[in-house]
Specification:
The complex is a heterodimer of chains A (331) and B (289).
Chain A: E1 2-13, E2 16-28, E3 33-37, H1 44-52, E4 60-67, E5 70-71, H2 77-87, E6 88-91, H3 95-98, H4 105-117, H5 121-134, H6 140-144, H7 153-166, E7 171-175, H8 183-200, E8 203-208, H9 211-217, E9 220-225, E10 228-234, H10 235-241, H11 245-252, H12 292-296, E11 302-304, E12 307-309, H13 314-317
Parallel strand pairs in A: 3-8, 3-9, 6-7, 7-8
Antiparallel strand pairs in A: 1-2, 1-4, 4-5, 9-10, 10-12, 11-12
Chain B: H1 2-22, H2 25-42, H3 44-47, H4 79-115, H5 117-131, H6 135-146, H7 151-177, H8 180-187, H9 192-228, H10 240-252, H11 257-283
Helix pairs in contact in B: 2-4, 2-11, 4-5, 4-7, 4-9, 5-7, 6-7, 6-9, 7-9, 8-9, 9-10, 9-11, 10-11
The chains are: A alpha/beta (331), B mainly alpha (289).
């Protein structure tokens, strides 16, 4: 349904252009959930912002973003508006700042329906109330009269989800929707999002730092590093069949509730920003399996064991990756 | 038990104290004074003790008395009545200036902040040029071209005040439009007009209100100055600036009442507007330039 081909984004920082996304290739099918995982600054949010054409002023975008075969980047104003209004909806990280503070929640929820789709107000309210009940918000009529600051963080985020669902989109873009919430609320909100998405058969791109969370709700996971997709694999297989040293490092560095570790594994070094990437593999400076070739020649994203990986040595390293960071220099 | 009671009482006590601390007496006094002036101006015909334009040379320069509370002017007209009637023109003029300047200024601010690029550059440079002319000069020029009266100086001052409103609101709108609720509107596919008028504008209202209040004070001084110079409202109409000018000759003969009272009223009103604007700005935690 949505296909991103060789997306390259540069932002204007002061006088110079700095790349934030390099050659990103991704796709989401109808009804499929794709997790976009990576450290801060890996380009996850920028990727989905590029889909919405919500990049800061002065950004340059190259490549293609195809929705049902049509290039989103080539849409004129009208086509873009109708794409935004009916095909795709976005759920932001911090609901409290994404809802206009001076208008009621009801206004926020019905506005898109009334303004874009010409639905009469009463009908819009009825639909919104229906969606609110579906996502487990009792007393919907009362909630619609309230202002955003009167709602808790979890409720605000649910309102945001409701606003996304009510326009009946086909694709959801969720930008760390639960990061700003506490753990219990996070679980509730995530459950609602997951359930609604499955029921409605929506495609979703789910951006998160949390590899386990992504594995729980997504069909497929793309791992991003320094503006590159380094691995793209089904969520079920990623754990056992991680083929990229970075993915393996991420998996190894999670705390485990069952084993008491003396010290968590770490991927040595600090995450590279997309503009610091040199000629070779973006992960070369931190990789335990690095060889000369990695520093000179940039690996391409290639198919391996049912997924996609961007590593020269992925074949040889099969099976040796998982614990390669144990007992690193941090002891 | 004792513990329970203490716990139920303390939050209430804190809340009361908090509310008392927040009550802003300066704001209340200024707002009340302005409200009083407006009421007096509106109901002038019913509350004045004398006809403000009734000349009675026999009663010229009377001191304050039971019948003439503030005394009379050089033509024997009741000063209190004239001051009350004066409030009408003295307040209506600045109010008109502020309404015009705010409506046009806000429109330009939204336009420049939203469109950016060439629209912004062209409009901003034009505003800079207007900025270079002091309001009073534009007003005098307008009177010279279109004749005296209230209309010409009001229009001229509206134009002169435009850049202040437009610039401040533009900078606020620029900041506001980068906030995420505007992105959320865009992502929902809302048309630009809706985003600007129904989302951006309401969030600018506190700033607009503060700006209006502050400009009212300045406009009042400027219009009074125009009248003082004899270029605004024509005698015998009662207007504070005109009264200051009128009473000037009598100061040397030992009858300063007319200039004095009109002057005091101008000063008090301007102070009230400025302090009100300032307090409102703090209230909305807005830093007005």
């Amino acid at each position: 349904m949505l296909e991103i081909r060789d997306l390259h984004v540069e932002l204007c920082v002061g006088e110079e252009m700095k790349p934030v996304i390099h050659e990103t290739t991704l796709s989401v099918d109808q009804g499929e959930a794709l997790g976009l995982v990576g450290e801060s600054g890996a380009g996850k949010s920028m990727t989905i912002r590029a889909i919405m054409r919500l990049l800061p002023a002065g950004a340059t975008v190259a490549g293609q973003i195809l929705y049902e075969g049509a290039d989103v980047l080539g849409f004129d104003r009208k086509a873009m508006r109708s794409f935004l209004a009916s095909k795709v909806a976005m759920i932001f990280q911090d609901a409290s700042t994404h809802i206009n503070p001076v208008r009621t929640v009801g206004d926020f929820l019905i506005e898109a329906l009334v303004t874009n789709n010409g639905v009469p107000k009463a009908e819009a309210r009825r639909r919104v109330t229906g969606v609110l009940e579906e996502i487990g918000i009792p007393d919907a009529a009362h909630r619609l009269e309230q202002y955003p600051h009167q709602l808790s963080g979890g409720l605000q985020q649910r309102m945001m989800i409701a606003a996304a669902l009510v326009i009946e989109p086909r694709l959801l873009l969720a930008d760390e929707p639960t990061t700003a919430l506490d753990v219990t609320t996070q679980a509730e909100v995530m459950a609602i999002l997951d359930e609604q998405r499955r029921q409605r058969g929506l495609g979703m791109i789910f951006v998160t730092h949390d590899l386990d969370l992504a594995a729980a709700v997504c069909d497929r996971i793309a791992v991003m590093y320094a503006g590159f997709v380094v691995e793209d694999r089904s969520a079920a297989n990623l754990h056992e069949e991680a083929r990229h040293p970075y993915t393996a490092g991420l998996l190894a560095s999670r705390p485990s509730p069952t084993e008491k570790a003396h010290r968590l594994c770490v991927v040595p070094g600090r995450p590279l920003s997309a503009f610091e990437v040199g000629e070779g593999c973006p992960f070369a400076s931190r990789c335990a399996h690095v060889e000369d070739r990695c520093r000179i020649e940039r690996p391409l994203l290639r198919e391996l064991d049912g997924g996609w990986v961007r590593c020269h040595r992925a074949d040889e390293l099969r099976g040796q990756l998982l614990c390669s960071y144990n007992g690193s220099a941090h002891e | 038990m004792a513990c329970d009671a203490g716990m139920t009482i303390s939050p209430t006590a804190t809340r009361t104290r908090g509310r008392r601390a927040r009550r802003d007496w300066v704001l209340i006094v200024c707002a009340a004074f302005i409200a009083l002036l407006v009421i007096v101006a509106v109901f002038a015909p019913w509350i004045v003790p004398h006809d403000p334009n009734k000349v009675d040379m026999a009663k010229a320069y009377q001191g304050p008395s039971g019948s003439y509370l503030l005394g009379t002017d050089s033509l024997g007209r009741d000063l209190l009545s004239r001051l009350v009637y004066g409030a009408r023109l003295s307040l209506a003029g600045p109010a008109l200036v502020v309404v015009f300047a705010t409506i046009i200024g806000t429109t330009l601010a939204l336009l420049t902040a939203w469109m950016g690029g060439w629209t912004d550059r062209v409009i901003s440079r034009v505003l800079d040029i207007i900025f270079a002319f002091p309001g009073i000069i534009l007003a005098v020029l307008a009177v010279a071209l279109f004749g005296s009266g209230l209309a010409a100086p009001v229009v001229a001052l509206s134009i002169a005040y435009l850049p202040y409103d437009a610039r401040i609101l533009r900078s606020v709108a620029m900041r506001e439009r980068t906030l995420t609720y505007i992105s959320a509107c865009y992502v929902a596919g809302l048309p630009t007009r809706t985003i600007v008028l129904r989302h951006l504008l309401p969030n600018l209202l506190p700033f607009i209100l503060v700006q209006c209040t502050l400009s009212l004070g300045y406009a009042l001084v400027d219009l009074a100055a125009v009248s003082y110079l004899g270029l605004g409202v024509a005698p015998p109409a009662a207007e504070w600036g005109l009264m200051v000018a009128n009473g000037q000759a009598s100061i040397l003969t030992g009858h300063p009442q007319e200039s004095l009272f009109a002057g005091i009223l101008i000063v008090l009103t301007v102070i009230a507007f400025n302090m009100l604007g300032d307090r409102l700005a703090t209230r909305f935690s807005v830093r007005a330039q």
